[in-house]
Structures are given as C-alpha cells and as structure tokens.
Automatic annotation (TrEMBL), chains A, B:
InterPro entries: Ppnp, RmlC-like_jellyroll, RmlC_Cupin_sf. Keywords: Glycosyltransferase, Transferase. HAMAP family: Nucleos_phosphorylase_PpnP (MF_01537). This is Pyrimidine/purine nucleoside phosphorylase. SUPFAM superfamilies: RmlC-like cupins. GO terms for molecular function: guanosine phosphorylase activity; purine-nucleoside phosphorylase activity; thymidine phosphorylase activity; uridine phosphorylase activity. GO terms for cellular component: cytosol.
Length: 105, 105
C-alpha cells in the first residue's frame, strides 16, 4: 500500500465544482506540495499556476491538454503533465482518484 | 490553517457509495488513525468497527445515532460520537468536509 511518511496534511479540503472535484493538500519535508484528489463524473476545465503532473491512480477520463486538438483517453492508471499558467479540460467518465504534483520551475 | 505534521498519508482514496463519500487515511506518529473525508448530498448508512468521533469541518447534514429516534441537525461545524460495532444514518444536505477519528478501546 503506497503511503507518504513524515508529511504535513492540511485538514480542510479544497472544493471545486460543487464538490464534484475535491482534494487534500500534502506538504513534504522538502517543502514541495502535492494534492490527493477525487473527481466524480463530469466535464471540467482547470487552470494551472505552477506546472502540474497529474497521476491517475484509478479512474477513467479524457484529457485535452493545452495547444492540442486530440483528447487523450486514460483508463485505470496514467499520467499527464500540464505546463504552468495554462488551461486543460477533463471529461471524467468514472470516479477518478488522482495525485497532483506542483512543480515550481 | 489547521494542519497535521509528521503524519503518514495513504495515497489511495477510500471510496463508498459510488464515490459520493470518499476519504483519505492519515496515521499519526503514535499509531492512531484518522480519515479526512468528503460526503456529497445523499442518504447513507455506515457501520463502525472501532468507536468513531466525527468532526464536521463544514457542511449541512442530519445524523441518526444508534438507539436514538430523533435526528440531530448539524449546520456548519459540529461533532458526534458513534459507539463501536454499531450503525448510524446520515442525510447529507450539502457538501460535507469531515474528520473521522477511530478510537481503539
């Protein structure tokens, strides 16, 4: 069972889209930050500040990355990277459990 | 901003009721366990193994505790305790952010 040790967790959730997307913020000893999130089925657009690496732990969804015209399908597990200061779209088909890593450059 | 330091977080979510109730498991240095969870609107029945203290950080819901005939309304923040090996019912009216503490006796 994968777990992160010696981390700090913010107790209050981050809520988006009426709670259909929620996450918890985790800060590591080196100061880097990740969120652990859940997305319920729906269509969403997100904007990034920092670069983000999205790791899908379980779920089914389509992703449209900035500057691309083709949607990418993820079924089960997968990963994609979103540049800083950009927007991306998701079509979530089944409950999706993700890890988002924020990369300061 | 309330946070927990020096904890271990399980990366995979706990999913219930088609993802309408989800939580993340956090283990403290002394071995005690809490979950940080989100409940979307709906009606749910849960069973306990250990005694549970449910702290509502934000939300609106009604609770029917075991052995009681009157529902208890929580709006905003609140807390209730559920005995070990029992069942309780919830009517969640708006997105609810909770902390559940598991008390081994």
């Amino acid at each position: 069972m994968a777990e992160w040790s010696n981390v700090t967790v913010v107790t209050k959730a981050n809520l988006y889209f009426d709670g259909k997307v929620t996450s918890r913020t985790v800060v590591f000893a080196d100061g880097t930050k990740k969120t652990l999130g859940i997305m319920l089925p729906g269509e969403y657009e997100f904007g990034t500040a920092a670069k983000e690496i999205m790791e899908i732990q379980a779920g089914e969804l389509k992703v449209l990355l900035p500057g691309q015209s083709e949607w990418q399908q993820i079924s089960g597990t997968g990963e994609f990277t979103v540049p800083a200061n950009s927007k991306f779209k998701l079509e979530v088909q089944s409950v999706t459990d993700y890890i988002c890593s924020y990369i300061e450059e």
